[in-house]
Amino acid sequence: MKPLRFFVLASLLVLAMLAVALVPSSDKRLLASALLDAGHVPLYALLAILLLRLLRVAPGLVGRGPVLHYVLAFLGVVFFGLLTEFVQIFVQRDAEVLDLGRDLLGGGAALLVNLAFERRAQRLLASFLILLAIGLLGTGLAELGLIARDYLARDRAFPVLCEFDDAWEGRFVRVLDGELACVEPPSGWEVEGLVGRVKLEVAQFPGLLIREPVADWTAYQSLRLQIRTDEPLELVLRVHDAWHNETFTDRFNRKIPFAAGLSEIRIGLDEISEAPRGRSMDMSRIAGLALFAESPQRELVFYVDSIELAVD
């Protein structure tokens, strides 16, 4: 590799590594975050090859044998991986062991592929190295694939937002300051499949959160859900869009009192659309909804199912 080309490529690689590892991400979407994480794999694969090329022309290492070059190249990947994770402690990013793992998987896979081509005359060994490299790459990119799978399942289920029956829902549904379990419906509740059992702790705003529902609600007229509780309680239903400025008045909020027993809630999307003060909610860019309690003085337990959109 010519010195100028090597320098340009190495410089671009360093900049890309800094962008992936150090630049704070303003996009909180799961897929965007997964793509950023997956970027460690190809970047450190390229880093490993560049280090290997550099070591082979470095003074004192020329002619020292390929094993030493490969070992040092991999140790270089380990060093840079640890360094970038350490630096993240001092910027607006979290140091993660998983990111370091992706660095090592990408770098290791690239070195194995390079070695396979250098040993291509030994076909059995080369094939084994290629298969091993594919396994490492697959491991490093597995989370991205799983998230993509769950997005597709979410899209197929729409206009159902959550029914607590499918594994993909665990990617987008969680409870803040509490617990969520998918259980058989309580006796007397005629519903197919499982329902969500939500237990909220004594906290400021404990609740059930659905992040990143399918964003375009414009073809529907109402939001519906079913709640069952053994004792009266009050919950707040919240909906916000992608332009939400994190203030109370810039979203839909409604306090809903629930009597003991089963309640079916229907809210018109026109009401949700007109809720933000000074603007209309963008019903083609809905970003999330929540069902939460305001500073409960005791633990709250309720069951929820069939959170979905409907055409009236």
Count of distinct structural domains: 2
What fraction strand? 15-25%
Q: What is the radius of gyration? A: 26 Å
**Main pleated-sheet profile:** 6 strands, antiparallel
**How many extended strands?**
11
- The number of distinct helices, counting runs of at least 4 residues, comes to 8
Listing every helix as H and every strand as E from the N terminus to the C terminus, the arrangement reads: HHHHHHEHEEEEEEEEHEE
Shape: elongated
Question: Which whole number gives the mean pLDDT?
Answer: 88
Distance between the termini: 66 Å
Uncertain segments = none
Structural class: alpha+beta
Helicity range: 40-55%
Question: Quick gist of this model?
Answer:
This protein has 312 residues and is α+β, with helices and mostly antiparallel strands. The protein contains eight helices and eleven strands.
What this model shows, in words?
The chain has 312 residues and is α+β, with helices and mostly antiparallel strands. It folds into two domains: 3-156, no CATH class; 160-310, Sandwich (Jelly Rolls). The chain has helices at 3-22, 30-38, 40-57, 66-87, 97-118, 123-157, 169-172, 269-273, and strands at 160-162, 173-176, 178-183, 195-200, 207-211, 222-229, 233-241, 252-258, 261-268, 286-292, 300-310. Strands 1, 3, 4, 6, 9 and 11 form a six-stranded antiparallel β-sheet that branches. Strands 2-5-10-7-8 form a five-stranded antiparallel β-sheet. Helix 1 (3-22) runs antiparallel to helix 3 and helix 3 (40-57) crosses helix 4 (66-87). The termini are far apart.
